[in-house]
Recover the amino acids of this structure.
């Protein structure tokens, strides 16, 4: 591992420190790279990544040079920084990080503050016209909120990170609303009952189900056919994203794209060409088919259960692992509805991962086995379809095993 990246990885252990002062000061020392491109912030509890990836693909299809910042990465650190769908080369990332590091050390910036500033510097150097930035945790105090968005997206609101954001959806919605800006366009897919919590921001907010009407039809394993009616007009397009929530995320991205002036044909082409690994992604591995999904909270697990039902999938073997701070009981309740058996394991590279034996109590009515490593868990699966779900860190370790790729040996905290 490069010295600069090793230094940054080490900062994960220091956790978070609320406030935007450090990242603002860091960007100032870097001569405000974020001012060289248009910014879109994409926040929410679930679906941020697929919405951001779809929107970036639509913008790219329109002829723009687009930066896409997402977190966490699955298997390679460079996945967090993409320009027109391509990861920035490691030497480029390392060189930019060498510029950021002394300023970050002087300011005692956190891991995610450094990564956010690094993304801005990389995108400025790459000459992007628009950067689609996935919000990390919450919204109001997330490092990405130091940027000035031309448009903001809030996908949905559900219970997650309650120890930081609050233990009600209303409290979490107020935190997410922090990425909205008065008088600027925004789109959202939150439940109608939460919309009043977003309106005090003064943003020019359009909501699915209110200003925009969505109709979607499943195409099985090929994805969804989406019809969207909005104030600017109507669109029909295909998305390869699976699950009804995938169709909804694609529709939200299309609504955002339309508000940014992306033409209809680019919306259609971008939606059809979206790639978002590790989220309802089906991979073939010998005689097995493995469906990967980062369902790490109850809302995500519920969406996975519904997606499997739509696809006509009955009970299947499930490999599951979680970080110790998650609502495992809520996730397990959803998994038990479709699991023929559960193989509990952990992401080896994540100190946050819960020991698999401690998870057994949450599956009292499903046959349970324990595997100490993801490789052992995969080897125990029978031929046919299985599901691997839970922590994205686990998905990030399983995916290269299925693809025959060398994993990145990086400790994973954030």
């Amino acid at each position: 591992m490069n010295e600069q990246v090793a230094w940054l990885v080490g900062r994960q252990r220091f956790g978070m420190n609320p406030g935007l002062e450090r990242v603002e000061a860091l960007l100032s020392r870097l001569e405000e790279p974020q001012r060289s491109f248009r910014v879109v912030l994409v926040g929410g509890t679930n679906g941020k990544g697929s919405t951001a990836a779809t929107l970036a693909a639509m913008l790219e299809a329109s002829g723009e040079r687009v930066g896409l910042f997402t977190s966490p990465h699955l298997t390679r650190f460079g996945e967090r920084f993409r320009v027109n769908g391509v990861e920035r080369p490691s030497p480029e990332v390392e060189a930019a990080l060498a510029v950021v590091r002394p300023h970050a050390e002087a300011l005692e910036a956190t891991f995610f503050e450094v990564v956010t500033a690094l993304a801005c510097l990389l995108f400025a150097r790459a000459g992007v016209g628009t950067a689609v930035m996935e919000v990390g945790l919450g919204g109001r105090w997330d490092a990405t909120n130091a940027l000035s968005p031309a448009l903001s997206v809030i996908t949905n609101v559900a219970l997650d990170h309650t120890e930081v954001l609050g233990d009600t959806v209303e409290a979490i919605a107020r935190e997410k609303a922090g990425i909205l800006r008065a008088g600027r366009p925004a789109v959202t897919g939150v439940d109608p009952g939460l919309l009043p919590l977003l309106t005090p921001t003064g943003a020019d907010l359009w909501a699915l189900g209110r200003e925009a009407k969505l109709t979607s039809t499943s195409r099985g394993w090929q994805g969804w056919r989406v019809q969207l009616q909005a104030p600017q007009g109507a669109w029909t397009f295909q998305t390869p994203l699976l699950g009804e929530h995938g169709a909804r995320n694609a529709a939200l991205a299309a609504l955002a794209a339309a508000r940014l002036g992306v033409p209809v044909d680019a919306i259609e082409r971008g939606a059809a060409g979206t790639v978002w690994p590790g989220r309802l992604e089906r991979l073939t591995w010998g005689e097995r088919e493995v469906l990967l999904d980062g369902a790490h909270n109850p809302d995500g697990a519920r969406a996975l259960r519904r997606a499997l039902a739509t696809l006509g999938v009955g009970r299947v073997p499930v490999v599951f692992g979680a970080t110790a701070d998650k609502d495992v009981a809520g996730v397990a309740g959803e998994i038990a509805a479709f699991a023929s058996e559960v193989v509990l394991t952990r992401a080896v590279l994540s100190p946050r991962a819960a020991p698999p034996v401690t998870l057994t109590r949450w599956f009292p009515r499903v046959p349970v086995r324990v595997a100490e490593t993801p490789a052992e868990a995969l080897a125990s699966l029978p031929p046919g379809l299985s599901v691997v779900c839970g922590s994205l860190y686990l998905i990030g370790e399983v995916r290269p095993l299925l693809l025959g790729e060398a994993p990145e040996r990086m400790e994973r905290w954030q």
